[in-house]
Structure formats: structure tokens, C-alpha cells
């Protein structure tokens, strides 16, 4: 596919399509830090309207959108060309790892898949045209996940994960301005407990679809701020629910997730205190 991106990242207009406000704001902050002009949409239909109204050099598209998924949104976006007749590059963002995603991405007209959480380094490569397309079947493009569903009663795997991924934390602290970092973390502290509460309420109502949607948002948000253990436990619960390995009335994951949430928020507060003390 032809691309309208050039090597001057500061002149580029990027459309971010992401329904989770934390992940959306973090992406916008990274892009603005790189000097880009940014526009955002929270769902596919709004993104299509926005794309018709302005020229964009790049679209970053979440696969899990509330109205129509990222593949369908991309197909419809492929009907839009800029003034020079070029197709706008569209990259889908996902934390999923199913092999079928590659073929679905090609069929939808996507330029590629990007692993969530999206780093500033990945954005720099995309904007500069240096992003390396990874062949289908490579293990580099998407995160590796176990095929087996992790039992919530077997805590060894997730206990091995640190509460806070220090290396990732240092990267986002170095990449973002203090105000943007503060706003992102404040939003997480507000949104994350709400996602978990909504998921637990859905489980009580036996609404598995809504529960997994909320858990998916919580896992993505946790990954975005480097809370590794919370992310892994939430993803384990999400996978187990989707696979039918959890009976919500008999094997409630919420007590463990609430405990991990409390521990993670405390670790985040301690990291913030260290950051501002050192600064």
C-alpha cells in the first residue's frame, strides 16, 4: 500500500481511535511530545466522520471498539483517500496474539499490527517511516501468551510478576512531560477501580460479555502504566471467562483482583513519591 507519511514527524497529523480514555490520553501525550498534531475518536463511527473531514498522515486504531471492531472500521476507512490519491496508513493496536489476526488485518487493509501498550519508540519508528514490517508467523510483532488458561487458584505465574515494571515506568517518566504524566496517572487511579467494579457487577449478573469487556479495558490500562502483576491477573481472568473456565457463582476472581488492585495502586503512589522527591 502507498503511504502519505513523510520523515518530518512534527508536521504529521495523527488520528487516534481508542475507547479507553487512559490509553487514548497516553498515546496523545506521546504523539504531542513528538511534535505531532493529534485528533482522537472513541469509536469507529466517530472516527469515520473525522477521517472524512480532515487529512491525516497516520491512523492508530484499537481493535476492540464499542460499536464496530477495528477490522470493520479499517475496511470502511480504506474507502477514503487523501487529496493526492494516497491511502492513509492504518495500524491496529492490540494486546491479543491469535495467529488469525494477521490474515484478518490483511483482509481489512491494515498496514500492520502494533503491540499494546504502544511505546514512544514504536511511534517514532512509525512516524519516521522506519517501522519494520514483521513477517507473518514471527513472534516479534505480537506479545506471546500461553495457550492454556491460567487458573486463578494457581498464583505462581502472576506472583512472579513485579507489581510495577520499573523499566517501563522509567521509560514513560522519561518520555512524558510532568503534567502529562500526572494527568495520565490521575486518570488511571480514577478509572481502574471503576473498571473492576463494573466487571464484578457484571459477573454477579452472569453477564460474561460485559465483564470481559471491562476486564479488557482494565488490563490495557494497567499495562499502559506498567502495573505488570495487575495486568497479568486481569488478563488471566479475562481469558478464563472467555474460555468458560470460570463459574462466576463458584469461582469469583474479584477478591483476588481487588487485593492486587490495592497493592498496585500503593506501588504506583510510592513510585510517584520517589519520582517527585528525586526531581
UniProtKB/TrEMBL annotation:
Cell compartments where the protein resides: Cell membrane
Residues recorded as bearing 4-aspartylphosphate in the entry: 62
Domain HPt: from-to ranges? 177-275
- GO CC entries: plasma membrane
What topology does it adopt in the membrane?
Multi-pass membrane protein
Grouped into one coarse class, the protein's main location is membrane
Spans traversing the lipid bilayer: none
| Domain of life (superkingdom) | Bacteria
**GO BP field:** phosphorelay signal transduction system
Instruction: Tell me yes or no: is Nucleus among this UniProt entry's keywords.
Output: no
User: Can the keyword Aminoacyl-tRNA synthetase be found in this entry's annotation?
Assistant: no
Q: Which InterPro entries match?
A: CheY-like_superfamily (IPR011006), HPT_dom_sf (IPR036641), Sig_transdc_His_kin_Hpt_dom (IPR008207), Sig_transdc_resp-reg_receiver (IPR001789)
The molecular function GO annotations come to: ATP binding; protein kinase activity
Q: Name one Pfam family in it.
A: Response_reg
Output this protein's name.
Putative response regulator receiver protein
From what organism does this protein derive? Magnetococcus massalia (strain MO-1)
**Which lineage is the organism of this entry classified under, starting from the top rank?**
Bacteria, Pseudomonadati, Pseudomonadota, Magnetococcia, Magnetococcales
